[in-house]
Amino acid sequence: PVMHVMSGIDMALWDIMGKSTGKPVHKLLGGSYSDKARAYASALMPETVSEVKRMTETYVSQGFTAIKYGWGPLGYDVHKDIELVRTACKTAGDHISIMIDIGKRYRLKEAMYVAKALEQLNVYWLEEPLPAEDYHGYKILTESTVLRIATGEEESGRAAFARLVNEAHVDVIQPDMSRCGGLTEAKKIASIALDNNILCVPHAFKTGALVAASLHLIASIPHAPFLEFSVTESPIRKGILKEPFVQKDGYVDIPQAPGLGIELNPDIIKKYGVKSNL
Question: Going by DSSP bridges, is the β-strand pair 66-70/97-101 parallel, antiparallel, or unpaired?
Fold first, then answer.
């Protein structure tokens, strides 16, 4: 899609500008509010309670203070969903934040039912419980619960995010730098969140380059509590950078080198790259 290409070009231009001025991108975006970002382990929800327990124990032992489980079996049986989430929360303990991503599979009443249950478990947010275009449903849902409702990873342009805020009344917007219009548009989207006193947490599941762009946005805004940090096995996610990002004690350092502060791995690009006709 054109927006994906334009988003990539925008991030590349910011990288070039940073390298030419000798400054990291977050300095060019308006300054830096932090030198590290709190990372949440982002994983697919496993099928069984025992596997949820095992995985949660693993991520906590690795130092993560927040975990998001999404997709997988979620969205087909609300009672099973609640059981899996309850297991994650109980295993993690009171000091670990748990987020849940349904992948747009609920209808409104199902979402309301699950939201009430997740309130009692102190889940941090419920992500994409409804189809992205169901603004009216999101409005009813957000007004029916104290649970934070998050969405926006597939949206492009600040006008779409303004609708999520003004019409759907969501609590967390999630611009993906590879889709929303790049860092230029993402900074404007983050300003919409700030003006409306809600959270902006970038979506960054696919590649290390996307993690880099998200880190620079997070550093440049005062209201991004988390960095999405995929823990799924993916050669593109882990291998596309010569020096992949690592989390330590639940945090990832903000790059301080010029530009995006990353170098791509040419071997991975050659292996998985595709030619474009654009």
Answer: parallel
